[in-house]
Write a structure and sequence with these properties.
The chain is α+β, with helices and mostly antiparallel strands. Helix content is 22%, strand content 32%. The protein contains two helices and four strands. It has a four-stranded antiparallel sheet. It is globular, with a radius of gyration of 13 Å.
Length: 82
Amino acid sequence: HSSRYLWPIGFKSTWKAQDSDVLYESEVLDGAAVGDVGGMGEIDGPIFMVTVKMAGQSPKEFFGRSAKEAWRNALENDKAEE
């Protein structure tokens, strides 16, 4: 946590809708430590990751330079598969 970043590196949260079997996990990663993920290149700052876990399927990971971007990527993919 700093004046520039609200969530500290390592922050994790989970969310599951009551009417769904989909589990969403979000995590803040250290961009300098993880290198190039999600085709974003190396980032000096946090990388936000949302992992979507659906029953009977392999987990899918989505990345963003902001929490909003990571969640948007995950939810857009979820809608495209419906």
